[in-house]
Amino acid sequence: MIFRRFIYLLLLTFVLSSCGLFSGGEDEDEFRGLSSEEQFYRRALEQLNSRNIQGAISTYQALESRFPFGRFAEQAQIEIVYAYYENNDTEAARAAADRFIRLHPDSKNIDYAYYMKGLSSFSEGGGIFSRFLPIDETKRDPGRAEESFSDFAQMLALYPDSIYAIDARARMVFLRNNLAGYEIHVANYYLDRKAYIAALRRGQYVVENFQGTPAVADGIAIMVECYLRLGLNDLADTSLALLQENYPTHGSLNEDGQFSVRTEITNPSLLYTMSFGLLGDNRIDPPLAPTQRPANSGSQQIIDTQTQSETNERSWLNIITLGIL
């Protein structure tokens, strides 16, 4: 019995020592020679300045776990936000910024936490290829852009005199232009597919909510075309006058200032669909509407030939046979 207990004790000792070897041995080697909180902080700062971002993150985490209430804990918590951002871990940077705001609402670095939170969303989603390829930012999903705009707006509302305010405002202008451009892309998508009401709503939304952006002119042009295609000619004339007055050089206006209606729509062929866009074409150019507006004040209505034939008087034979003859 005594021998069996001795064997169990040896096995337990071996298991515990093995756990310590595999779980904590590496950390002990990494932070060997560091005993005080200041030493941990200086090591993390040196790693951050030498671009050893992963090492800096590990050291900041170790500092906080060993000295959670030390005099360097608050500084380490705000600096790890920047370390996560530099490591392209934007989700962790946002989470760390939120945690700092929650734990230290009266800190002198609170405005920086709000700024880094917005900057993390601003930089997210581009990927490594965005640094080398000309990617259109207005065609990307607007979710993160909206979050970033909201974060920067919150920072400016709370800390308008922050040293980061100028950069935040400039980024907000950029984000607002991109959000307006995204709405125009969606409106053109609907317009190409003859969903004129949906396209009209998008154009109106840009004009009403993104004043001062370059996309407003495109929004008005979309409104003009949608009103024309819907037969709302008085509204089309009003929108056209607004476009001519404020944006006389817009691409939808010809040299005489008249509105040119687009004559192409999206209509992918079978070859284009089967080859995932590699072969064939996805556009056709039927005469959907007059290519130009008339020079007089009246509007030329867009009348579909099929609709026009249906408005003609029907014969008795056609009525009796339910349109078959």
Main traits of this protein?
mainly alpha, Serine Threonine Protein Phosphatase 5, Tetratricopeptide repeat, about 0% strand, elongated
Walkthrough of the structure:
This protein has 325 residues and is mainly alpha-helical. It has a domain at 33-124: Tetratricopeptide repeat domain (Serine Threonine Protein Phosphatase 5, Tetratricopeptide repeat, Alpha Horseshoe). It is built from 15 helices and two strands. A two-stranded antiparallel ribbon has the order 1-2. Helix 5 (73-86) packs antiparallel against helix 6. The longest helix is centred in the middle third of the chain and has 28 residues, at 165-192. The protein is elongated. The N and C termini lie far apart (106 Å). The model is unreliable at 18-26 and 286-311 (pLDDT under 50).
Brief account:
The protein has a two-stranded antiparallel ribbon with strand order 1-2. The chain contains 15 helices and 2 strands. The chain has about 325 residues and is mostly helical.
How does the SSE layout of this entry go?
Elements: H1 2-23, H2 25-30, H3 37-49, H4 53-66, H5 73-86, H6 90-103, H7 110-123, H8 143-158, H9 165-192, H10 196-209, H11 215-230, H12 233-246, E1 265-266, H13 270-274, E2 283-284, H14 305-311, H15 316-320
Antiparallel strand pairs: 1-2
Under CATH, the topology of the domain at 33-124 is which? Serine Threonine Protein Phosphatase 5, Tetratricopeptide repeat
How are the strands ordered across the major sheet? 1-2
- State Rg: 32 Å
Overall morphology: elongated
Percentage of residues in DSSP E strands: under 5%
CATH class category name of the domain at 33-124: Mainly Alpha
Q: Return residue spans where pLDDT drops below 50 for at least 5 consecutive residues.
A: 18-26, 286-311
- CATH superfamily membership of the domain at 33-124, which one? Tetratricopeptide repeat domain
